[in-house]
Amino acid sequence: MKLTIIGNGNMAKALIGGLCQQYDIEVVGRNEDKLNNLKKDFNNISVTLVGDKYDITGKNIIFCVKPYALEEVACKLQGEAQSLFSILAGTKLSSLKSVIKSQNYVRVMPNIGAVYNKSMTTLTGDELLKNLSIEIFSSIGEVLWLKSENELDIATAIAGSGPAYLALIAEAMADGGVKCGLSRADSKKLVQGLFEGFSPLINNYEPSHIKDQVMSPSGTTAVGVATLEEGSIRSSFIKAIESAYKRAVELGKK
Question: What is the number of alpha carbons within 13 Å of residue 80 lying toward its C-beta?
Fold first, then answer.
């Protein structure tokens, strides 16, 4: 099956890394240098520099540009696609339908874990594309089909933006180790091992259970958690999810 990815940025590259093992990938973009670099990184894909017009008739499109570039890129597309999968954060199906012709539409929110087949991808849209959507995006990790666009906007704030939040945690923990006397390399190695080992834990236990199992009375973990709570860590994360969700909604209104 052939998939046409329109876009040549970081998210497009992450998707290509996960999808190119199972699908025939064509990448269409406006930046010739980026397209050439993608071709060097993934020699089994084809690349096309988009001009004034690009025919999407009968194609399965993964629309992978920045939300603000929707109309600028859409005006270069002609014909009617077979299916359109849009990863544009906050961009409503109605907005897509008004500028790009396709038989069916699905909104998709992957994350950059796609390049390692570890994306947590959420989907919503036309039910006729549900099974195909799940099949395609299961090749880059876990998928979750949601009932509404509002739910997908909330999911965007968690799974789409989440790698950045976790990166902040990882960086801060490594910095803490360095402050206490560890070498940067050793502190980084500890954090990497921690994140790898946490995945099966969170897949099998509730977060509160994990915390309670580690936190012994008057122990190091109890003191550390209390210090984090002084900084309102849980409240800060809840507010971060809420603000990111609101931003997704705002993007959908533009």
Answer: 5
Total-model pTM = 0.86
- Cα distances (Å, whole numbers) of residue 207 to 42, 200, 228, 230: 38, 12, 16, 19
**Tokens standing for 105?**
């539409």
What tokens does 241 get?
């999810």
Residue 6 CB-half CA count within 13 A:
29
Q: How far apart are CA 107 and CA 90, in angstroms?
A: 9
* Nearest Cα residue to 81 out of 54, 105, 104, 58: 58
* CA–CA distance, 174 with 162 (Å, rounded to integer): 18
DSSP per residue, 18-59: HHTTTSEEEEEES-HHHHHHHHHH-TTSEEEE--S-EE-TT-
Query: Which H or E element spans position 122?
Result: strand 119-125
Question: Strand, coil or helix: what is 88?
Answer: coil
CB 22 within 8 A of CB 139: yes
pLDDT digits (tens, 9 = 90+) for 155-209: 999 999 999 999 999 999 999 999 999 999 999 999 999 999 999 999 999 999 9
Residues 6 or more apart whose CB falls under 8 angstroms from that of 165 comprise 237, 240
CA distance 162 to 164: 5
